Amino acid sequence: MRNLLTTVFTCIVLATTQCFCLPPTEYAKANNPSAQDITAIQQTLGLFPIAVDTKQFNLLDAVFTPTATGNFTGRSVSVGLPAIKSYFEKGLTGLVSQHNLATLYVNMTGPDKATAHNWVQDSYFGTGNATEQIYMSWGYHQDDLVKSRGRWLIQKRVSGTSGDFGPKSLISGLL
User: Residue 143's closest CA among 160, 129, 157, 153?
Assistant: First the structure.
């Protein structure tokens, strides 16, 4: 057990020491984005783990635009909200998941456009015959957001992994 905890702690330290430096855009410097927009973006991003971890995939309608793209694995791209929903519905079958969001940086790139960089830790727990299996990963979400009908939604998401632990076969439906 001690070796497991040491390995997990080491992965967390390695994942969190990687850094992205995102300077404010010229728009943000000149227009001083409102706290209301930043909070609305945080709410949109925060709804994602609730939707996928509770398997309430209809909540993704309030996270992604209808034409959004998502590259969640670095290998394949889901195009359109129905494809994104299907990716998670199928991929999370037989798993309990917990997606934790950490440091968030929002950069306003226009009055109705923004980028967001978010550190994440994802944990997946097997069920049934895979009850003893756990897979964890550490990484980021890089999002392009647009304001549409008064709501901030993700138009494009690219996810990356800084480190992982456990059998990838557990999450084969997400790869």
Answer: 157
